């Protein structure tokens, strides 16, 4: 296990105490039967004064910079850029009595729904506010040896969550300390309904080699052959002028969104599912703020000066996060989506990026281009409070039944036929 440096801050003993302040169910605090160490406690950052919040935010940045499990969604600066009138950030920190930072749990709080869906169609939606955390709370090596830290965090959260509020774990690594805790600590079920959102999946990554040629050589024989053929066929086509553009600056954002949306609007994801990139006020503001921080790095592929594919993402602390992708279906025969992926990978290797993260979900293209993965699962943590607990119980039962029907249809090839039909109809010209 890697040893992490402990960030020290000047917090006096009257701030970090060992009193019983209800950080576990039934107000157990630090005197629970689990033998919790009395030398630390979780604190809500909103409940501290301005000076301490400022000091802690600096300590948090040093903490996540040295933590192997930290991702972009742990950066408070990034979370605060996504805030709006109905979206906010809630941060908990675990402090030792000496002022060292032992744990950090940031939540992005936003409107959502518990949705009863059948074949992608919503039959009933119950509005909630979701406290979403990506990956896991970050703990120091001192805190990882004792599950009491996570037990008390969940106890603290239960006291905070209102009747229509739930916690959501996005992309929980099943082999991580937090992933094992969620699956193995059965007492948590007394206070929360814990159930998966969707099926587990492989999160695919590319650990970048020193050169693009080395990357190509490390691909499987069939993938390597397909990539080279695809590039050759398009680049040597005398009738098509191929180029791509990289967008990184704040002033680039309006043009990128306009071009990307022109492609996204043609995809089946947009027409059938309402997904894809949108040029709206919130998106524009988020991308401009990200660009001001130096995080934005998005791409447009042009064929004969016409936008035919886009890749949108962020570069943060040496890791590129591939947020959204899309291509014009009328150019699918030229594999423009694959070509845009390859151009992006080559560009990222050239500028010295350490890792490309394909983020959530899995598909054949991610599998063929990646060289590393781990297993993840999304989880709901619904406090046993009326009415949200009853809605969640019904949703679990509904999902179990529809899951069995879906598995039967998948096994017999029915779902794939339906998908192909719906995609073809959604992308067909009017």
SSE layout and pairing:
Blueprint: E1 40-44, H1 50-65, H2 76-81, E2 88-96, E3 101-118, E4 121-134, E5 138-139, H3 141-144, H4 148-160, E6 165-173, H5 177-184, E7 192-196, E8 201-207, H6 212-218, H7 221-235, E9 242-247, H8 253-264, H9 268-273, H10 281-292, E10 298-303, E11 306-316, E12 319-327, H11 336-350, E13 355-357, H12 364-369, E14 372-383, H13 388-411, H14 414-427
Parallel strand pairs: 4-6, 12-13
Antiparallel strand pairs: 1-2, 2-3, 3-4, 3-5, 6-14, 7-14, 8-13, 8-14, 9-10, 10-11, 11-12
Shape: globular
- CATH H level of the largest domain: which superfamily? Gcn5-related N-acetyltransferase (GNAT)
The overall strand count is: 14
What name does the CATH topology of the largest domain carry?
Aminopeptidase
Strand-residue fraction? 25-35%
What is the terminal separation in angstroms?
58 Å
The major pleated sheet works out as:
14 strands, mixed
- Summarize model confidence as the mean pLDDT: 87
Protein name: BioF2-like acetyltransferase domain-containing protein
Domain BioF2-like acetyltransferase: 222-367
Pfam family, one: Acetyltransf_6
